[in-house]
Design a protein that fits this description.
The protein is α+β, with helices and mostly antiparallel strands. Helices cover about 55% and strands about 10% of the residues. The termini are far apart.
Amino acid sequence: MIYIMRNDKFSAIKLRLQGKSYSEIQKTLPGISKSTLSLWLKNIVLSASAREKIENRSKQKSLEGLLKRNKNQTHLALQRKEEIQKLAHGEIANISIQNLFFIGLALYWAEGYKRPIVRGGREVTYHPISLTNADPVLINVFLAFIKKICKVPVEKIKANLRIFQHMNAEATLKYWVKTTGIPRENFNKTYLGISKSSMGKRPFNRLPYGVLQVRISDTKLFHRIIGWIDGVKNHNFS
């Protein structure tokens, strides 16, 4: 009995010897299942170059699959982040004066200048309120605390602006005047400088508006704020 090999089987063997994967063979020979290909090709001995082609293609597909999964996971993570933040945003109701009081204290506790000024080994009697930050929203929240809680008129609030080499001094100054409502004449001379800690290595757009120092010359208010902070420190939260 003469055995005649099916044309599609012959083609499948030929393609396999060329280093084609089962999926690629199926595209060329539609209608042939992988189980049939496995039966036909299980005893085929591949050359080193054919095995290398198949292995490289398998690695490439695995990498593509991994990248696709990572991309999908990143997309899902971003969706979850937006959903969580949106829900949390809705949990913040109207902020009361008492809320603002503690928010302002927390900001000064974290970002304000609290160390007594010492000259010649002695603490001086003059202590201004001073807070420095690059975040316009944080600055405005602190200003709300100063104006609404501490009852400081905006005319008594001074500002020092530090910018960096890539910034336009006039445009940055106008931005802060508009953003904070602090009168332009209350801004001291703009300082151009580079942070010693970064030595100019930070991305130029990391601090797009420079750094602003808010300063109020009021020693009594300084000690009052420090006293409030001490009161929070000594509170029993248990």
